[in-house]
Design brief:
alpha/beta, two-stranded antiparallel ribbon, single chain
């Protein structure tokens, strides 16, 4: 059964096109029965984004601005920010910033969020901030010295004495300085499971700190109420715990809404779409009474089949049956270099027309 207040929208990349294209696209999207956009500008050119917001207001579209930890503003990419990067299991420095490090949040993430709230927040078309790919593997897995130090702090608080930790982990550490975050987990060894559980729980606590810092940066800067959406893909929803600590109900409860997506591809959806049922059950248990959004895919890589209208509509029906509050589609227009640059919905007007007709009937 469809929720009466379910509404629909698109991801939209502004890079690579111009205001004339935006105007035409936004008119088409609005006339098609869609009310919302998640707007992304890879370089965070706020003057350009404000022009897009003007056109969204013209066409009665509400906008969330996408924040992806992979793509921070140019001012945060200088040499002095190298120490704020993630470090991989192999010790190599990652190109991405470490959101779990206090000093990195203070130097990078908090100013970034404040800038968004200050520059975009006052606009009438601006609804909020969409935090995307939050637990994305490539962006946030880190084994830097600061991560190790914080992990030792967590363990000291939990166990008090190194001897108690050794009994729990079946290790022979002589001092706290010998302790490092685990890099592998042997699920058939109970001591290894306990070690990995501690590592996951520590990171879950750090994600709470990250959440509070990100939210506070917006709240103290906003000029009007700003919805802050926490989001990631289906993989992180299912497996994020082992990879990055994972989402917890406590973390999600701090935000206004929760979202997950299938933009990684249709390959992971079984023909009967029962995994949509499973994932939405998990997401609803995680998000509690918070609004739940779902992204479905309307894009493909070059040379790969484009999802047909029949398939997208069938997936939409399944998500509606599971009582989603909002459905977004990825992507209407994709930026240059994005895998969907050629095969996005803007270049498939036949699929858009059929999807739009269904949305207008449903809405």
């Amino acid at each position: 059964m469809t929720k009466k207040n379910t509404d629909f929208g698109f991801m939209y990349h502004t890079a690579g096109s111009n205001p004339r294209t935006w105007d035409d696209d936004f008119r088409t999207i609005s006339a098609g029965g869609f009310k919302h956009l998640v707007l992304w500008d890879k370089e965070n050119r706020f003057n350009s984004v404000l022009k897009a917001l003007d056109l969204c207001e013209k066409h009665a579209l509400r906008v969330h601005y996408l924040v992806n930890p992979r793509y921070l503003a140019q001012q945060f990419r200088g040499p002095k920010y190298l120490r704020h990067r993630c470090m991989g299991i192999d010790g190599a420095l990652s190109p991405y910033f470490n959101p779990l490090d206090r000093q990195t949040r203070k130097a990078v993430f908090v100013p970034y969020m404040e800038a968004i709230a200050a520059h975009l927040g006052p606009h009438k078309a601006f609804s909020g901030v969409f935090l995307d790919d939050t637990l994305d593997f490539e962006s946030i897995v880190s084994y830097s010295e600061s991560d190790a130090c914080r992990f030792r702090e967590f363990l000291r608080h939990r166990y008090g004495r190194i001897a108690r930790l050794n009994r729990r982990w079946n290790t022979n550490h002589r001092a706290w300085g010998d302790v490092l975050p685990p890099r592998i987990m042997l699920p058939w060894r109970k001591a290894w499971i306990r070690m990995w559980d501690d590592w996951c729980e520590a990171r879950q606590q750090w994600w709470i700190e990250w959440s509070r810092d990100m939210i506070s940066a917006v709240r103290r800067t906003e000029s009007k109420p700003t919805e802050i959406v926490l989001g990631d893909d289906w993989y992180s929803l299912r497996f994020g715990r082992d990879v990055a600590g994972g989402f917890t109900p406590r973390m999600v409860s701090l935000f206004d809404s929760f979202s997950f997506d299938y933009t990684a591809g249709l390959d992971y959806l079984d023909t009967r779409m029962t995994n949509i049922d499973r994932d939405m059950t998990m997401a609803k248990d995680l998000s509690g009474d918070k609004p739940l959004f779902v992204f479905l895919k309307t894009a493909s890589k070059p040379g790969r089949p484009f999802p047909g209208a029949k398939t997208v509509i069938a997936q939409t029906r399944r998500v509606l049956r599971n009582q989603a509050d909002r459905i977004y589609y990825y992507v209407y227009r994709a930026a240059p270099g994005n895998y969907a640059e050629e095969n996005c919905l803007a270049n498939r007007p036949d699929v858009f027309r059929r999807l739009s007709a269904f949305i207008r009937r449903t809405a």
